[in-house]
Amino acid sequence: MSMALSAASPIRKPWLAGLITSVLFLIVCLSWGTTWLGIKIAVESVPPLTAAGLRFLIAFPLFLSFAKLRREPLLFPRQSRWFFVFVTLSYFSLPYYLLNYGELHVSSGLTALLFSCMPVFILIFAALFLREKIYPSQVLGIAIGFASLFMIIRSQGLHLDHAELFGVVAILAAAVMHALCYVITKKHGAAISVITYNTLPIGLAGLMLFVAGLSVEAPVFGAITARSWGALLYLGLVASVGGFIV
What we know:
- By secondary structure, the protein is mainly α.
- The chain is 80% helix and 0% strand.
- It is built from 9 helices and no strands.
- It has helices at 2-42, 48-70, 81-102, 108-115, 118-129, 136-155, 162-188, 194-216, 226-245.
- Helix 3 (81-102) packs antiparallel against helix 7.
- It starts with a helix and ends with a helix.
- Mean pLDDT is 88; it is low at 1-11.
């Protein structure tokens, strides 16, 4: 009986691994695909700095629980403390403020399209920092990506409204920061646990963004609608976990 199970396990494991990978990929697609709508609803009644901070403060206890259950360290390795600061600022703090600000001025659909240019920036940064070779097919992909981006922006008539233009620039800047962070992570963060990578940076970024929001935006919490609270809870408890850990 045990011999039969041992013989069968090599066959089942690749199939099971492929199924699990597919399910996890689907979860990421659903969580990140709905993030843009969640942000749009959140900033209806919550200023962008405050909204970004609340999202991460809501998510932080969940990440902390994961770290405790899995007995993962909270601190980055001593030699990677600079990388901790980089991730906190360049992956969580600044980009998510820029995304929230951008969605004040452009639609969630346009935000998703603009942010989908991030792989183009990843390819460029990978060539610069990782010395990865760029193939002609990838150059063609970059050209198509930027041509598509140009057509998207032109179709939105951004010349009519400076606020829309600033929103597009903010979203593209966030995409560039995320692309750079992914490439630097591949070079310097491969040995860091996913939970360690996310937990303290999310908590610190949330605190900094929230305090900055209180100081700069002076939000009126009584004016926050149930829709926005629901969106913040979704972003913190579902989208953040689905996007950052899964």
